[in-house]
TrEMBL record:
Protein name: FAD-binding domain-containing protein
Transmembrane parts of this sequence: 12-32
Keywords: FAD, Flavoprotein, Membrane, Monooxygenase, Oxidoreductase, Transmembrane, Transmembrane helix
Domain FAD-binding: 320-360
Superkingdom in the source lineage: Eukaryota
Family under the similarity heading: Belongs to the paxM FAD-dependent monooxygenase family.
GO molecular function: FAD binding; monooxygenase activity
The keyword Transmembrane helix appears for this protein: yes
Species this chain originates from: Exophiala oligosperma
A Pfam family matched in the record: FAD_binding_3
Amino acid sequence: MSNDDTRKEIKVLIAGAGIAGLSTAIALGRLATDTPGLHFDVQLYDKATELREIGASIALSPNGLRTLERLGVDDALADDVSYRGPAALPMIYHHWKTNEVVSADRFVDVPDRKHQTARFHRGHLHSTLLGHVPRETIHLRKAVESVVVRDDDAANGVGGGGGGGGGTVTLLFQDGTSATGDVLIGADGLRSKVRRTFVPGHTLHHTGRTWIRSTFDASLIRDIPNLPADSAHWWGPRYTFFASRLGRNMYTTVGNYDPEDLPGRRGHGEFRWDQEGDVNFFRDLYADWNPVVKALADATPHVRMYPNLAGEPLESWVFEKRVTLVGDAAHTHGGAHAAGGSLALDDAWALYLSLKHVLSSSTIDDDDDDESDKTFGSEEFERAFTLYENTRRPHTTRLVESVLATKAAAVVPSTDEELREKMNNRPNMTWLTEHDVEATFAKVLENEMGNNVVEDDDARQVERESVIFDIREATTIMGIPGSESVLDTTTESAVMVK
Ligand SMILES: *[C@@H]1O[C@H](CO)[C@@H](O)[C@H](O)[C@H]1NC(C)=O
C-alpha cells in the first residue's frame, strides 16, 4: 500500500467562530503537520451573519499570551494591536474617592514583556485570529439547533471501522441544513446549544452584576488631567470602575452595578447581552467619584449593557465519545477576572495536545499488513477528550466555584478602613493568570500512565472552596466590574476557622 492509500481523514466540526472557535481551529490545524499520515478537515459554523466581535475590551494574561505564541499567532503579541502600560504591572488599584493607588498586582514569573497582560479591543483580537484560519472553512448564518450522534459500528467511520468503530456526529442547523463529521467541538459560548443538547438541565443565573462597557477612540480622553497611563481599577464601596488604553488608539471604560440596588428598576432581565444602554445612567453612577473617574464617565460617548451570567460547573466535558466543549461553553464562569479569552486559548491548546498524543500513538505504523491499518474511532476520540477534560476541568471548576461562592457571600464594606482592607486582602489570582497548561497536561498524562488518582492543586482547591462556600465563611466580597473582576471566596483564616 502506498502512503496515500493509508492516509486517514478526520473531519472536525467546530460550532462557533468566536475567539474560542478560531483558537481551536488554529490549534487543530497544526495536527495535520504534527501527525503524519493523517488528514484533518476542520470546518467552523457560526450563527453570525458577518464575522464581527462585540465592541468591548478583552484582556489576555500571561497564560493566554504564551499560548497565542505557541499557536503561531505572533501578530497578536505585537505592541500595536494591544496595550501594555509603562509600569509593567498586571493591574493597579485606586481608591474611588481619593484616586490614590492603594495596591497593585505583580507578575510572579513573566520576564518577557510580550507575555505581560495585554488589553485588546475584542474585534482586533478576533480579526488577528481570523487571519490564521482559511476563510472558506468558516460557514456563517449557521445557527445550531441540535446535535445527533450515531455511534454505529457498521457505519463507515474514520479508517473504515475497526478498533474504535465507526460513527458520526451531525450538527443540525436552524435553516434545515446539517453538517456531519467525526468529532464536534462546541465553541458556541455561554449559552451553548451544543452544551444544551447534552446537558439540558444546566442553567445560568445572574451573578448580581450588570456590566456597562464602552470602547471608543482614545482622542476623547486626551485632555483629562491626571489620567493614569496604566490600566486602572478604582474600587468603591459597592461598585468599581475600570479604564484602560487598548491597542490601535482605542480606549475602554467599564462600570458595573447590581440591578437589585436600584429601586424601581426592573431587575436582572432588564437588559439583553450587548444591548445599547443609557450613557447618562452610567455617568450618574460615578457622579460623586474622584474627578478622573468622573471625567472618564463624562467622556464616554455611548455604553452597552452586559448582565453577568454564570452556571454550575459541568460534571463531564465528554459526550457520546465524540463531542466536547471549549471556552465559555465548557466553563460558565461569566466574565470574572477577565479570564475568558485566556482560558479559551488554553482550552484549545490542551485539546491539541490531547488529540496529538492519542492520534500519534494509535495510528502511525506505515508497514503494510492489515494490522498497520490500526484505526481510530470513538474510543480514541474519547481517550483524547478525557485527557483534555482532565487537563482543563479541575482548573476551570476552581474558577467557576469561586464565582458562585462570591455571589452567595457578598458583603459591602461599611467603612473606608474596611474598603482599604478588602483591597489589600484581595485574592491572589496568579494560579489563574500564570497557569501553565503544558505542565498540567504533562502531569495528567503521567497520572494516566501511572494510573494514579489525579491529585493536583486545582482539584484540592475546588474542594476547599466548596467547603468554605457551604459554611458561608467567605467574607470579603467586592463588586465584579466588567471583565476585570475582583472576586474572592476565601481567606486562609476562613479555612482555619473551619
Ligand atoms: C501569589 O501566588 C503565587 C503562586 O501562585 C506566589 O508565587 C506569589 O508570591 C503570590 N503573591 C503574593 C503577593 O502573595
